[in-house]
Amino acid sequence: MIGARTGRGMLRAAAGLGVVSVLAASSCSSPGSKADVPAVTTVPAAATALLPAKTVDSGSSPTLSAPTTLATSTVTATPTTDDSFGPGSFDLLDPTVGLGALTSYRATLKVSLAGTRDGQPLQLDQTYILAADTAASARVLTVQTGDGTAPPRLRADVKDAVFVTDGNGICTGSVPDAADSADADDGSVLDVGATDPAALLRGLSGAEAAGSEILNGVAANHYTFDQRALGSRDPATVTGDVWVATAGSYVIKYTLTSIGPSPSLGKGVDGTLNLDYELTDINQPVVTALPPGCPPTFEAPLLADATAVERQPGFVSYSTASSPADSLAFYQQQLPTLNWTLSADVPIVSDQGGRLRFVSDAADLTVSVSVGDTGTRVVIIQTAGAA
User: Fold this and answer.
1) pLDDT at residue number 256
2) Rounded distance, CA 66 to CA 199, Å?
């Protein structure tokens, strides 16, 4: 298992450029090792965020601050008087700003580095694709590394559940405890700032206006920048462009090219780095379906007096003061309204418990009840299958 804090360290923003600093791990590890892949964690803990929310420059070693929940305030354009930054009047303090106000979107970030480390060839290619649907409370992020032959890594937040895939494409899910999610400093369920590719982009100070245009169906202001707007002390030469929505102030497109030696990318690294971020399908329908093999996300109804509730994807259990017969009668009434059909199997019902089986087009649902020390215990399990 990749630990939460260790995982975040494997996928952190490099100080000065805000790119994925997996170079130190990926270039010197053997194929298939944990260091070769983006950071995800296995369950049952609150799932580790794939992306850091912010970077904090601390000399030559980048560190992470706590993930940031997206604000819906606008990006302000304020005069920049500090000579250590760019000459323009536009500041982009947080590249994720405004995204939380959108109903849906698709964000794509492509990162490539071609160069050398200590004279040895170095190549990095990573693509991040996020499909976000606020109405469905779903965010599905995939990370593809290298030439695409290996399965992409996935982290999905769907309602109150978190799903991740490992290097073999195996999907697991969990429902973090509310206390764990609230206290976690490494990303929590539907923490937009912790799972959005825009969190890997570097903020700007002193970008220069370059006109306005319509981009991806949205009116946008265009700005250009160089290494001065990053506040970077790297010897590398940086050029970049950013397009920001005139209404909502969210970043629609952000490109950056860095040429030359860059200690921010790792000791002894020299080469050409390209970042290409783009927001599409803005407030349009997007697909947030989980890949095959992920646990189901069905939300089973509970009796009103449910206590000691335990949830995981495809599983829920709880205690109730209702009798076993009344508990089963509740599900016989409620589940058909949710498109579940009582199976032709003969129901098992007694004073001490019972079991019902329901079916849908692509799944089975079993409701089991039994008498326990604290009343009736109800267990609901959903599995793939068909009637």
Assistant:
1) 97
2) 12
Span 100-118, mean pLDDT?
94
Give me the percent of the chain exceeding a pLDDT of 90. 43
Among 379, 380, 377, residue whose Cα is nearest residue 323:
377
Q: pLDDT tens for residues 122-144?
A: 999 999 999 999 888 889 999 99
Taking only Cα atoms into account, the Rg of the chain, rounded to an integer number of angstroms, comes to 24
Any bridge partners for residue 64, and if so which?
55
**Do residues 382 and 312 make contact, with C-beta atoms less than 8 angstroms apart?**
no
Report residue 4 as tokens: 């939460």
3-state secondary structure of 99: helix
**Averaged over 163-169, what is the pLDDT?**
84
Cβ–Cβ under 8 Å, residues 53 and 188: no
Q: What is the DSSP letter of 48?
A: P
Tens digits of residue pLDDT in 172-189: 888 776 544 444 444 333
Other beta carbons within 10 Å of 47:
31
CA distance 100 to 283: 11
Nearest-5° angle of CA 38, CA 44, CA 46?
Answer: 65
DSSP of 278-347 = EEESTTS----PPPTTSPP-------TT-EEEEEETTEEEEEESS-HHHHHHHHHHHGGGGT-EE-SSPP
Asked if the model's pLDDT at residue 11 lies above 60, the reply is no
**317/307 Cα distance (integer angstroms):** 9
Q: What is the pTM of this model?
A: 0.66
Task: Single out the residue of 139, 146, 133 nearest to residue 193, CA to CA.
Answer: 139
Are the C-beta atoms of residues 42 and 164 closer than 8 Å to each other? yes
